[in-house]
Amino acid sequence: MLTRLSSKGQMVIPSSVRKALGLRAGTQFHLRLEEGRIILEPIRTSPIEALYGKYSDSDFLADLETEHEQELMDETEIRA
User: Fold this and answer.
1) Per DSSP, what are the bridge partners of residue 42?
2) H, E, C per residue of the chain
3) 29 near 40, Cβ under 8 Å?
4) Burial classification of residue 27, based on how many CB atoms lie within 10 Å of its CB (0-12 exposed, 13-18 middle, 19 or more buried)
5) Model-level pTM greater than 0.85?
6) pLDDT one-digit tens code per residue, 10-60
7) Which of 6, 25, 39, 60 has its CA 20 to 30 A from that of 75?
């Protein structure tokens, strides 16, 4: 396959290669030089690693407590 380097140093990975390797936007690569060749290896992360820190600014416990309080109030109204 033939690809070209842009003036900004970017290269397009053909869609057939992206599909075959399951590559998506945002995929990170480890790049190394080996005997005058460029080797790109996609970095595979586990789903847990991908989520690490993603919700650090959320207060899930407070949200759950609020939801539980609402459920109790709804249940009380139904029984009344």
Assistant:
1) 29
2) CCCCECCCCCECCCHHHHHHHCCCCCCCEEEEEECCEEEEEECCCCHHHHHCCCCCCCCHHHHHHHHHHHHHHHHHHHHC
3) yes
4) middle
5) no
6) 999 999 999 999 898 888 999 999 999 999 999 887 778 777 777 788 888
7) 60
